[in-house]
Amino acid sequence: MKQNIDPIAYKLKELFPKTGKVKTKRILWIMPHAPLKAEIEELKKILGKNISTVNIGLTIDEIFHLIHTPSILQKLKEDFQLDAIVSFIFLEPLDIPILIPIYQFLHSCQQKPCPNYNLEKDWIDRSHRHFRFTKFAKLKPIIGLTLEEA
């Protein structure tokens, strides 16, 4: 598959604000939903209050292509001076934080609207599975040796 970052780069150019005197942390949001209020607040605790998240609106297939092409992520990181990436799928380690959101699965919704829905913390996927954001985990590369049977 051709490594073409032009559509992604174009979206980032349009979506990232110009930074002023205060350094804004740029966070690429690679998730199937827009950032929730609770997620933004947690990111501010981790990275500082001046953050700018950009959800570039990729489909699941585009996300899988992006994450399986580390050179694209590295180029995006450099070109757009990213300070962190949030993704629901483990990515190749880069020299910036990669944060994985942790969700609690609540149930498969039977009612619309769900009576247990929390606007600040919850999202419901296309299969009506209801998730609640709990925290972020930081992807940490492990370098070492493993043993296997001879």
Structure notes:
- The protein has 150 residues and is α/β, with parallel strands linked by helices.
- It has a domain at 6-100.
- 26% of the residues lie in helices and 26% in strands.
- It is built from four helices and six strands.
- It has helices at 6-15, 37-47, 60-67, 70-79; strands at 25-30, 51-55, 84-87, 98-108, 122-124, 129-138.
- It has a six-stranded mixed sheet.
- Strand 1, helix 2 (37-47) and strand 2 (51-55) form a beta-alpha-beta unit.
- The longest helix has 11 residues, at 37-47.
- It is globular, with a radius of gyration of 17 Å.
- It starts with 5 loop residues before the first helix and ends in a 12-residue tail after the last strand.
- The mean pLDDT is 79.
